[in-house]
Amino acid sequence: MGGEPLQSPPMSTQIIEQLIADRAVRTVFQPIVDGNSRTVIGHEALTRGPPGSPYESPGTLFAHAALLGRNVELERICIESALHAFHGLALGGRLFVNILPQTLLAAPSLAQWLDEQLSVYRIEPHALVIEITEHGLAESENRLAAAVDPLRALGCDIAIDDLGAGSSGLKAWAEIRPDYVKVDRYFATGIEQDPVRAEILRSVVEMGRVTGSRVIVEGIETRQQCLIALEQGADYLQGFYLGRPRRNPSFDPAAMAEIQVKSTAPDGGCAAELSQPIPAIAADTPIAEVAQLLREHPEWSALAVIKSTDAPRPVGIVHRDPLLTLLSRPLHPEIFNRKPIASVMRSYPVLIEARARLDQVSRMVSARTEGLEHDAFIIVRNGRYAGLGRTLDLLRRLSAQQIHIAMHANPLTRLPGNLQIESQLEQLVRRRRNFIACHLDLDDFKPYNDAYGYARGDQVLLHVAQVLTRATRRNVDFVGHIGGDDFVCLLRSEDWALRLTGIFEDLCASLTNFHSAEHRAAAGFPGHDRDGRLRHFPLLGVSIGATEVDSSRATRESVLENLRRIKILAKEAPGSSCLLERQGQITDLVGLASRTNCASERQAVALAGA
């Protein structure tokens, strides 16, 4: 650990024993920055051993302590050092401290000890965030979840550190339900060149919205990494670009001052927009009081039940009609009126994080609700009660969204239309994202429509849309339908060349199936050209013109102009073609031709003049 060789056991034992006896550790802090407000919300405490020694690295220090069985004692010394320094510097905000899972399981009195230490340094428990590193999550997730309960009861928040560095992070996430998830620095490193890492980060953010966990991206070292992490929806950022670990940490707001982010996440609304501010009731409230409250407010279909007013975490839900029906039966008021509402509540309500997208809400509600008569669900924010939602309101919002999408989509293929194509192109260029822009259309599609009819032509267009959708990556690539037989693809996948040639080969092989056997045997069909003359047309073909876009120099207009030129060349090439303009070269991706940019310019001008 740390890449440093372990010393011999006798020397290690002596040094570690002396280090622990002298409490010879120091704490440095690194700021954690809110991506929206661009302010510091807290600091992570990082331990350092004696300067200049082999044990200055925390990895080496803890590796040797583990060999001697002194990890628990060393970690307590580190935490106390962090609390002392945090208090002395009056940093404010949240203090993030690291604890190994093994230490957490081996120290059942940790919460009590922490309570005493927090009192000594006059730090509120809610200011402390316990980071459980994923490097050691091979322990039982159930045991870990039980071990953090006393820390939560104390008032501390829980974080999973280095998510993605080990193999048990997702299981621990599901069991522990942390307040924060820190994404391992691996996913920030190289994210500028690797869209896959960006998509993994986006997926983590989406899971965070569902579970109520705030996502912190570690390892931010450049402005571009900062921008991309924010675009993927990260809540908080940490790394050298925003502040190095120091005894007296600092953050310069100028580092993020000019970063303008427009999220690439679908604009689909969130659960908070469905929240109704209906007050929650404590679990020990008598049933008679709850029933009276529901009678006084007939517009309330349900009430959330919380553990107590001091701890507003939902523990159940009570629905209006079943409760009042229960009390309407003979002798039931005498039996139930004085009992606490917890005795009749539904103990496993649907809990929806306020930041969850409406499509996520729909899936979770559909999986848990029993019917529209019990259609209420609880909306929480960071685990605390925020309001009630109704399935009926959710369905109305989803319907409105679908209508809005339909208004801007191609009516036949349901692919995004012109407005969405231009908007996506503008976003990619503005965010300095390199990509491949492609324009695809069918050869001799008009005479095909005349010969076979528009219904058959529509089947061809639907087939093309399906081929494009299958061959591209959702949330990475973009497919749009301009109209007629014209389609646009904006490719950001690393294997874009394979995907593009795959599209070409798939269409070349499959489009012939939309012709009759007679026409396939004749390698074409009779039809009238634009001048009304009868002639022989070849079977349907496809022309694809593509251009590599360097967004550091491109504009939306220049991309469209380059795409227009390369599409003309592709249409003029004999038969089906797939041409790419890249770094001043025009290349036939199926190996038919290669021309210089100069030659292509002359041909394009000649064609335009003709």
Please tell me about this protein's structure:
With 610 residues, this protein is an alpha/beta fold. The protein has three domains: 25-255, Alpha-Beta Barrel (TIM Barrel), CATH 3.20.20; 271-398, CBS-domain; 409-609, Reverse transcriptase/Diguanylate cyclase domain (Alpha-Beta Plaits). It contains 21 helices and 23 strands. A hairpin with a 5-residue loop joins strand 1 and strand 2. The relative contact order is 0.06. Mean pLDDT is 84; it is low at 1-11, 262-267 and 592-610.
Write a brief caption for the model.
With 610 residues, the chain is α/β, with parallel strands linked by helices. The protein is built from 21 helices and 23 strands. β12, α13 and β13 form a beta-alpha-beta unit.
SSE diagram, text form:
Layout: H1 9-22, E1 26-34, E2 40-48, H2 58-67, H3 71-89, E3 94-99, H4 101-106, H5 110-120, E4 128-133, H6 141-154, E5 157-163, H7 169-176, E6 180-183, H8 195-211, E7 214-217, H9 223-231, E8 236-237, E9 281-282, H10 287-296, E10 302-306, E11 314-319, H11 320-327, H12 332-336, E12 351-353, H13 358-368, E13 376-381, E14 384-390, H14 391-408, H15 418-430, E15 435-443, H16 445-452, H17 454-471, E16 478-483, E17 486-491, H18 496-510, H19 517-521, E18 524-528, E19 534-538, E20 541-549, H20 556-572, E21 577-582, E22 585-588, E23 594-596, H21 597-609
Parallel strand pairs: 2-3, 3-4, 4-5, 5-6, 6-7, 7-8, 9-10, 12-13, 20-21
Antiparallel strand pairs: 1-2, 1-8, 10-11, 13-14, 15-17, 15-20, 16-17, 18-19, 21-22, 22-23
Helix pairs in contact: 6-7, 13-14, 16-17, 17-18, 20-21
